[in-house]
Amino acid sequence: MIYFDNSATTKPYPEALATYTEVATRIWGNPSSLHNLGSQATRILEASRKQIAELIGKKAEEIYFTSGGTEGDNWILKGVAFEKAPYGKHIIVSDIEHPAIKESAAWLKTQGFEVDYAPVDARGFVKVDALASLLRPDTTLVSVMAVNNEIGSIQPIHEIAALLEDRPTVSFHVDAVQALAKVATEVYLPERVDFATFSSHKFHGLRGVGFVYIKEGKKITPLLTGGGQEKEMRSTTENVAGIAATAKALRLAMENQEAFASKTQQMKEVIREELANYPDVTVFSGEDHFAPHILTFGIKGVRGEVVVHAFEEFDIYISTTSACSSKAGKPAGTLIAMGVDKSIAQTAVRLSLDLENDMSQVEQFLTKFKLIYEQTRKVR
């Protein structure tokens, strides 16, 4: 099997699974309990919070645990919007955000908020000047992803941060789900960022666990009320074993980050160079300021899902851009926002590589690609 769909989810590290099993077996008390088992769970919980905070260069008290990226995006977008509603009901999101952001923004519109969408250029980067023109006195929130999940473009977070530097009343959120442990933290988490979202299963942790960064002093409406967990911001019994596994996975992923970037970039370039030899192939992912592991392309006249299933016949797994939209059969929203014709956008497929992949797998992929390309000649 060749797995080239790591942006959808990654295989958990064995060490992370071992941590989960150990904590779930040996330290299974509720952190809210007063007895010793509860105290043990609390110590693991807070040690994990501290480790995660240190790994991303933040304070432990600025980390709040969630169930993943979608929950985090929903919480921050809606929580900030409602918390700051007395001061304004206008928010800005980029036109290439994950559905967790775009659908949340659409829902906020039904609640009386105004939403503007910052456009992107033909390469998939937010136009900072255009975003600046959308800012209003009643703007309370700007949300822009760090790394686009469909084509891998690294967004100009520092430029947007500079734009907002003299606008302290505007909160700045970054969806960093596809960035953490893939590109350097300083690229997408400058000091001006007030909120950020992360998901464990994107860096070899477990599904169902994530965390958000909320800068000290920033206000947000609580996500869940009840038992008062997470400083009364998300009241539910914490998934201590999953959180401990997340801390372990993040430490390993950060230690491997440099090797990850080097190896995946090399593999991506080999694939890119080979695809350039096929006249009916369009490569949508650029080279400069793109994540090292994501490469999106399409075969003229062949829908992306056809290509995905063709590779699956050879036990090679890729995807049609966003995993969250693939089963819905929607064309890549990022490509549409870039001005790509819908008929071309529907051909897009995404490769997302990992440190566990190697050049022998790349060679096998390219060999099977040649066969698939020839098989689709009549369609083209």
TrEMBL record:
Full protein name: Aminotransferase, class V
Keyword Iron-sulfur in annotation: yes
Pfam family, one: Aminotran_5
Lineage start: Bacteria, Bacillati, Bacillota, Bacilli, Lactobacillales
Residue ranges of domain Aminotransferase class V in the record: 2-365
SUPFAM superfamilies: PLP-dependent transferases (SSF53383)
Coiled-coil residues: none
Keywords: Aminotransferase, Iron, Iron-sulfur, Metal-binding, Pyridoxal phosphate, Transferase
Protein family membership: Belongs to the class-V pyridoxal-phosphate-dependent aminotransferase family. NifS/IscS subfamily.
Names of required cofactors: pyridoxal 5'-phosphate
Domain of life: Bacteria
InterPro entries: Aminotrans_V_dom, Aminotrans_V_PyrdxlP_BS, Cysteine_dSase, PyrdxlP-dep_Trfase, PyrdxlP-dep_Trfase_major, PyrdxlP-dep_Trfase_small
Gene Ontology molecular function: any one: metal ion binding
Keyword Membrane listed: no
